[in-house]
Amino acid sequence: MLVFLRIKDCSTKKKRMMMKNILFVAAFIFPMLTMAKGNMETVEFKVNGNCGGCKANIENAAKIEGVSEAEWSVETKMLSLTYCTETVDLDDVYQKIADAGYTSEKLEATGSSSCGSKEAESGCGSGTSSSGCCSGGNN
């Protein structure tokens, strides 16, 4: 990254000093900006749920610090997660999802899910019992 400045009425010595300062600052800021992004990785794994309310709950539970994107599909039951490998431990994401009441391929639900959707009362048309799609998040 080169920065060109046109400095009027300055001595050559001042111009050189200013350019050194600019290059010095740029040499430290640029690497920090690239390191801040970290190594991003996208993984997919199954999380049980049935409706749009479940989708919102699962995605919100998965969005811990360091997760840039969480997208759960009602149709496939797959969660696509983009995260920083340097700051996120996937076990923490699995645990947050379980705490929210949803079973993933790694952990059983430990909390009680409640999506709050009217669809849940009828089982979202998925053939679940009248207790709703969110009872246990295991559907």
In short:
This protein has 4 helices and 3 strands; from the N terminus they run αβαββαα. With 139 residues, the protein is α+β, with helices and mostly antiparallel strands.
Features:
139 residues; alpha+beta; Alpha-Beta Plaits
3D architecture notes:
With 139 residues, the chain is of the alpha+beta class. It has a domain at 40-117: Alpha-Beta Plaits (2-Layer Sandwich). 37% of the residues lie in helices and 14% in strands. It is built from 4 helices and 3 strands, in the order H-E-H-E-E-H-H. Strand 2 (67-72) and strand 3 (78-84) form a beta hairpin. Helix 2 (52-62) packs across helix 3. 26% of the residues are buried.
Number of strands: 3
Query: Residue-averaged pLDDT, rounded?
Result: 76
Strand content: 5-15%
- Note poorly predicted spans: 117-132, 135-139
- Number of helices in the DSSP assignment: 4
Shape: rod-shaped
CATH class of the domain at 40-117: Alpha Beta
Class of secondary structure makeup: alpha+beta
Oligomer: single chain
Helix content percent band: 25-40%
CATH topology of the domain at 40-117: Alpha-Beta Plaits
Give the end-to-end Cα distance, rounded to a whole number of Å. Answer: 54 Å
- Major sheet: arrangement of strands: 1-3-2
Radius of gyration: 25 Å
CATH architecture name of the domain at 40-117 = 2-Layer Sandwich
Could you give a short account of the major beta sheet?
3 strands, antiparallel
Summarize the helix and strand pattern as letters: HEHEEHH
